[in-house]
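stage 2 :: seqdesign
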């Protein structure tokens, strides 16, 4: 859980959720994801394997959080009394990425 703090001093509690991939017709897998509290539930992303669908769903949530940072929003842990803000480097580390989304081709 995070707090999203805007420049206008509004606070929104965000919960990043990644579901379990499931098999659909044929050899297609889908995976649900959501950034609860700010966005509508994302469409279940499709892949040719459960791992691909899971990676796509995780990447989408990363992109949504990175977009908030790029817009100037602050992300902090709900239970952090000091409200230490995340930066893109912290977000990259959390999602196991090395560089910025543009450096990685937004993958």
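stage 2 :: out
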């Amino acid at each position: 859980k995070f707090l999203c703090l805007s420049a206008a001093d509004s606070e929104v509690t965000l919960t990043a959720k990644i579901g379990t991939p499931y098999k659909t017709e044929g050899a297609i897998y889908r995976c649900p994801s959501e950034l609860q509290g700010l966005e509508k539930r994302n469409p279940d992303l499709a892949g040719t394997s459960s791992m691909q669908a899971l990676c796509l769903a995780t990447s989408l949530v990363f992109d949504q959080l990175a977009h908030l940072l790029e817009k100037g929003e602050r992300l902090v842990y709900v239970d952090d009394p000091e409200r230490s803000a995340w930066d893109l480097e912290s977000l990259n580390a959390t999602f196991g990425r090395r560089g910025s989304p543009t450096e990685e081709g937004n993958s």
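stage 3 :: structure notes
- The mean pLDDT is 87.
- The radius of gyration is 15 Å.
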